[in-house]
């Protein structure tokens, strides 16, 4: 006896590209080695971001409560926090560039969208690594929200695609 699919399973299957007409195209795209490398790079960058975020909530208040000048290790940790931010941003842009290559090589989204994500993300990584161009003392790709713009493009295209 055939069972009729429940509404939630149809919605989930539709969200992941599983249908009788289209086949499992999203799973093929996500299984590409570049996409897997992008996921690992982004995960490692997210771990560094967590450390960077926790630092101002723990070490800085402790140093502020001291009655004397900050200890020597505080200055070293301040520099480390800046390096952790740079590591996160480089991992984020690099993983988004790899995601762009995976999208460009897949069939789920238009090829141009993958190349747009790749070029934007690679430009962000190079700009952060070299510090050029400098706009108001820093790279235009330095604000963290800039690294999330490519994923917004991919998400919007997935929503429009249905």
* Record field, number of beta strands: 0
Number of helices: 6
Number of domains as seen in the coordinates: 1
Instruction: Extract low-pLDDT stretches.
Output: 4-23
| Rg | 21 Å
Shape, per Cα inertia axes:
elongated
Q: Tell me what portion of residues adopts beta-strand conformation.
A: under 5%
Give, in order, the helices and strands. Answer: HHHHHH
Largest sheet: none
C-alpha end-to-end distance: 30 Å
* pLDDT averaged over residues: 77
| Amount of helix | over 70%
Structural class: mainly alpha
Describe the protein.
The protein is mostly helical and 162 residues long. The chain has helices at 7-15, 25-30, 33-65, 72-105, 111-130, 149-161. The longest helix is centred in the middle third of the chain and has 34 residues, at 72-105.
Write the layout of secondary structure elements.
Blueprint: H1 7-15, H2 25-30, H3 33-65, H4 72-105, H5 111-130, H6 149-161
Defining traits:
162 residues, mainly alpha, 6 helices
